[in-house]
Amino acid sequence: MEARTASTTELVDSGKKSNYHRSRLIKSIIFKIVMSLLILIVVFPFLWLLLSSFKYEKDIITYPPHIFAGKYTFQNYIKVWDTIPLLGYVKNTVVFAGATMIISLVLDSMTGYALARMEFKGKTAFYYFVMVTMMIPFMVYMIPLFIEMNKMNLLDTYTGLIIPRATTAFGIFMMRSNFVGLPRDLDEAARLDGLNEWRIFTKIMLPLSKPTLMALAVFTLTNNWNDLLYPLILTTTSSMRTLPAGLALFTGQHISFYGPVMAGAVISMLPLFIIYIFAQKYFVQGSAMSGMKE
Amino acid sequence: MEEIDTSVSKKRSFFRFWNQPKHAAYLFMAPSIIILLFFMVIPLVGTLGLSFFDINIFFTGTKFVGLDNFIQFFHDQRAINSMWHTVYFTILETPTQVIVGTIAAAALSRTTLFNRFSRSVFYVPVICSLTTSGIIFSMLLDPNIGWIPYVLHQFGMSTPQFFRDATLAMPSIAVMTVWKNFGVTMTIMLTAIQAISPSLYESAEMDGANKKQQFFHVTIPQIIPSLGFCVMTNLIGSMQVFDQIYVTTAGGPEFKTESAVQYIYSRGFSAPYQLGYASSVATILFVIIAVLSISSNLYMSHKEKQMR
After folding, report:
1. Where are the beta strands (DSSP E) in chain B?
2. Which residues of chain B make contact with A225, given a CB cutoff of 8 A?
């Protein structure tokens, strides 16, 4: 309705219309140029990394730098496995981040479920306890955690890496918000049908929570995959390092061979990037949830 | 026969007891609560406790020293500098990231194909680790082979040393961090902007407000809570800056980029391995962060009440 009245007035006043359209067109072109520039700033480092990882060392360290090289090679991707214990890093990262993701999905949804849909003594206290732990930064308690793990002989073990990360306050918060949103009468009907509490949780509630579980899964996976300080503290031998910790220690301030390091960097981010392409929605949802206020 | 019966009924009543929601809840929560307690809360208390001890990583010659560690902190110029560097990084990083992220969100709030593509691209650095970002930027900013010094040189500027220059190192790290993280702020702000009811814009338009006025008088007031959240989380996150510094400069040149966490790490986990003293610095940093987060929380809830 509105559009029609607008077009009739525009017809009456065609001079004004073309002016208006021109300024809009210019604005949209400027907008696209600025955004494209920003896209370039974001994308260029990655493209350059990817391209350079296929270059010969001498083509990487030229000045002035070139985007393209005359010849390309897989050499860096072959050499990197010898120069850096990358295979071990990949394995450690997959085991640590993968296991942590699965276990924390189970534990976080269990706790979130209890806090969302069960009435029990001390519920508010437990809820605040979880919320407060969300505000405690890792660096504040890392030294005693290191000592604790050392005393329990869990340094440099997968168990030691996984257990402290097996639940997160944010995950509990996220799952709780999810379960609060499910219809009330669902579990009551199931209870009348004689299902026990565990069955109600696994057979009815969890299947309804797949989108949130996916968002939480990619969120925890990304966090643990990329974390640096945590694995740096809880592992002391090179053979237990994860990708970020291993690469960081290997490159340090001074990089002696650029090619293999670049290949290593590409390999370290490739898995998450592939998952991102297919599950982008869930990545974004996780970030958006972190901004949700009560 | 009877014995079996009682054991079965015992089992049954045991099951019935734990199957009531008011009891089952504890079983559901137990693993998480135990983990949070043992691997977070107890270590947190431990940090405060360790602050009063002279203790090294080999646990030799441990002794109670009272407040000595805290007194040492105020005479330790490197420790105090590390706090200032952290504050400096926070001042550089937080406002930039929030502004860039919010503008990107406002500019891309309409769902067109181009906007959706831009949003997906801007989120890519978020999934890239700070280690990888650090490696990329170390090379891009390298004065001998890097693109950025080269491009600046083409515009007639002298080639700066970036990560190796005492004045430029921290701003470089901050810019890199904004590059990596503004996608998070954008996503949060986008959710907030898209949640604004279109009727607010319609009535503003009827009152004769142009696009700019609409942005400042409709959009901004509506997104204040989310904006506050972004500022707060960013502040708290920046105060813990470590990864990007560890990878790019490791605190150099001459400790000019050493952040508080970097200092705690190198004091505790490299020579002289003083876990006690490092804990006291961690305690001080925690107090600062706690004051920041509590006061900004109070301020935000006060603001929200005012707006209602």
Report:
1. 53-54, 63-64
2. 129
Task: Tell me what pLDDT residue B154 has.
Answer: 84
Query: Up-side HSE of residue B112: CA atoms within 13 Å toward CB?
Result: 7
Which residues of chain A have a CB within 8 Å of the CB of B278? 143
Identify all chain B residues contacting A169, using CB atoms and an 8 Å cutoff. 36
Label residue A58 by pLDDT band (50, 70, 90). confident
* Pairwise CB contact (< 8 Å): A287 & B126: yes
The ipTM estimated for the assembled molecules is 0.89
pLDDT digits (tens, 9 = 90+) for A71-121: 888 888 988 888 888 899 999 999 999 999 999 999 999 999 999 999 999
Whether residue A136 and residue B131 make contact (CB cut-off 8 A), yes or no, is: no
pLDDT tens profile A219-274? 999 999 999 999 999 998 888 999 999 888 877 545 667 888 889 999 999 999 99
At a CB cut-off of 8 Å and minimum separation 6, what does A3 contact? none
Domains of chain A, CATH where assigned: 2-75 (no CATH), 76-290 (1.10.3720.10)
Contact A180, A116 (CB under 8 A): yes
Which residues of chain B register pLDDT less than 50?
1
CATH numbers and ranges of domains, chain B: 2-50 (no CATH), 69-307 (1.10.3720.10)
Helix (H) / strand (E) containing A86 = helix A86-117
CB-nearest partner of B145 from A31, A65, A146: A65
Length of chain B: 308
